[in-house]
Design a protein that fits this description.
The protein has a single domain, classed as Rossmann fold (3-Layer(aba) Sandwich), CATH 3.40.50.200. The chain is about 25% helix and about 15% strand. Helix 4 runs parallel beside helix 7 and helix 5 runs parallel beside helix 6. The longest helix is centred in the N-terminal third of the chain and has 15 residues.
């Protein structure tokens, strides 16, 4: 299914969200949720106001305090970034494409997932022709193309190495199906990532990894590398019919963020300078919000594990059922 919409009205976009939900799974939260029975919701019964996620995460209030990602860089390991896209103000020209035999700068995005993540994380303030309202609009995007239809472990590992060598502030990884191939030593991508991420943490790297959860930590256990001190795993939340907050799926993480009907930009328009809005769903969208917030509130020379600790301790609201993990609030920990 094509996950990206053309130029459309809000009602048409809501219809698209219904169609996407058919691909993504049931429209109601399961009664076997992490926290037990939860209020039901559906795309039909609980339409959300535009930019509800922006309000919930307090993005505007964070910007009002001067935190917009200036002087920060976010590497996004995904499907690249659409050439000529104007919704992101700052793009590092040294971004890398790893799909070819040798590294190139051909980052063009034919899938759309990487471009959508960039729109949420770093999208410019809304204006003429701008479909986004990103979390860290003054941060610089460092795109690393590792998804080329599918991805493999070597590309992901190389992408992480490049981003760490660049000393970016945040690495956003929101891969749906993770590569399943093994290297010559029969190691999985997760085993190889453990070495890279742990070494970065032990060396006081300033880079924080923000990872979209695909794990419930029961049937699908969190990989060991995601438990390192410089990694923040993100789960998604939405609103019930009565307006209360609840988890969007059975995925778990260190922190929750809005993961339903998160506006970003489509790649479907013929005119690459004008991009229609698109609703992104799931932990990918939630992780993009957290990555932008992390970049925006990061202090100079703050190491990744300290940023993670600060986010978890000071930038959450305990509004979800169970009270064990908080939902992101980008302004709560600011003076």
């Amino acid at each position: 299914m094509n996950r990206y919409a053309g130029r459309a009205s809000f009602a048409a976009l809501l219809l698209l969200a219904v169609l996407v939900s058919a691909c993504a799974g049931p429209q109601a939260v399961s009664s076997t949720s992490t926290y037990g029975p939860t209020p039901s919701w559906s795309y039909v019964r609980t339409p959300l106001p535009q930019l509800w996620w922006h309000i919930k995460a307090k993005v505007g209030e964070m910007h009002a305090k001067g935190k917009d990602g200036n002087r920060r860089t976010v590497a996004i390991l995904d499907s690249g970034f659409l050439k000529g896209h104007e919704d992101v103000a700052k793009v590092d020209p040294s971004g890398v494409e790893l799909c070819s035999t040798g590294r190139t700068n051909d980052l063009d995005d034919f899938n759309g997932h990487g471009t959508a993540l960039a729109g949420i994380t770093l999208g410019r303030a809304k204006g003429a022709g701008i479909a986004t309202a990103g979390v860290a609009p003054q941060a610089t995007l460092f795109p690393i193309k590792v998804v080329c239809g599918v991805s493999n472990a070597d590309r992901v590992i190389s992408g992480v190495e490049i981003a760490l060598a660049k000393r970016v502030d945040v690495i956003l990884v929101a891969l749906g199906p993770w590569p399943s191939d093994l290297d010559v030593n029969k190691q999985t991508v997760h085993q190889r990532l453990l070495d890279k991420v742990k070494a970065a943490n032990d060396s006081n790297s300033e880079t924080l990894f923000v990872v979209a959860s695909v794990w419930d930590d029961t049937t699908y256990k969190l990989p060991e590398w995601t438990k390192q001190g410089n990694v923040l795993v993100v789960a998604a939340m939405t609103l019930a019919t009565d307006g209360s907050e609840l988890e969007y799926s059975d995925k778990t993480g260190d922190i929750w963020a809005p993961g339903r009907d998160v506006e970003t930009a489509s790649i479907d328009d013929a005119d690459r300078k004008q991009h229609a809005p698109f609703f992104m769903q799931g932990t990918s969208a939630a992780a993009a919000i957290v990555a932008g917030c992390a970049a925006a509130i990061k202090n100079d020379k703050e190491v990744g594990r300290d940023l993670r600790t600060r986010l978890k301790a000071a930038f959450v609201e305990y509004t979800l059922p169970g009270g064990r993990r908080g939902r992101l609030n980008c302004v709560r920990g600011l003076p």
